[in-house]
Write a structure and sequence with these properties.
Elements: H1 13-20, E1 31-40, E2 44-52, E3 58-66, H2 74-89, E4 90-95, E5 106-108, E6 116-121, E7 125-130, E8 141-142, E9 154-158, E10 177-181, H3 190-199
Antiparallel strand pairs: 1-2, 2-3, 4-7, 5-6, 6-10, 8-9, 9-10
């Protein structure tokens, strides 16, 4: 038998939050995109929020035991403060599609006419690091025996050299930065290949 529940709290928390926001300290102009409140006399005021900064970055915040469980202000303020703290200490680093990845400007394919192929990022990635830290990248992995390369073909991979762990459900492809060719190159003829091998 399913028990019956009666909802007696008809508080519009979204309206309360909207009314409260203008009175909060908000130097980074954060907005609350979504929320779930939770309160009890034992645990105090709790709040789970989806918060966005002015650059479009989204943060999930979880606070508990913030002031009296009836308080409808401090839980919001504390959530904003958490994001303010992140923004004060961390910075986003962008690798945009069609952008050069660090110092990885070309990959060498001796079996193609062009030999040195200019490569760019095949997709956009961004990473959060401590402020002042410049991203470095691992040596690329690629098949140097490729002989026929098409424009925009994925020809190699690199990764950001970070001392960090990915979320358990992250796919392998999400941990890599694909490198794509910016031009096509057909197989080299035997004479040029012979000459290249001799001059190495």
């Amino acid at each position: 038998m399913t028990p019956n529940f009666v909802v007696t709290d008809k508080t519009d928390y979204w309206q309360l939050m909207t009314e409260t926001m203008p009175n909060l300290s908000n130097p980074n102009q954060l907005t609350i995109e979504g929320l779930k409140t939770g309160s009890s006399p034992e645990s105090g005021a709790g709040f789970t929020g989806l918060i966005k900064d002015k650059n479009g970055h989204e943060f999930i915040t979880v606070v508990n035991g913030i002031a009296n469980y009836m308080d409808e202000t401090k839980r919001y303020q504390e959530s904003l403060r958490i994001v303010d703290q992140v923004l004060a200490q961390k910075q986003p680093n962008y690798i945009k599609e069609n952008q050069t990845v660090g110092h990885l400007k070309t990959l060498t394919f001796p079996n193609t006419k062009q030999e040195h192929i200019i490569v760019k990022a095949a997709q956009t990635r961004h990473y959060w690091t401590n402020k002042g830290v410049k991203l470095a990248f691992t040596q690329p992995t690629f098949d140097s025996k490729l002989a026929n390369i098409k424009k925009n073909q994925t020809v190699g991979y690199t990764t950001a050299a970070l001392n960090a762990q990915y979320l358990p459900y992250a796919q392998k492809t999400e941990k890599k930065i694909s490198l794509k060719s910016t031009s096509s190159s057909k197989p080299v003829n035997w004479f040029v290949k012979f000459w290249r091998d001799r001059t190495k």
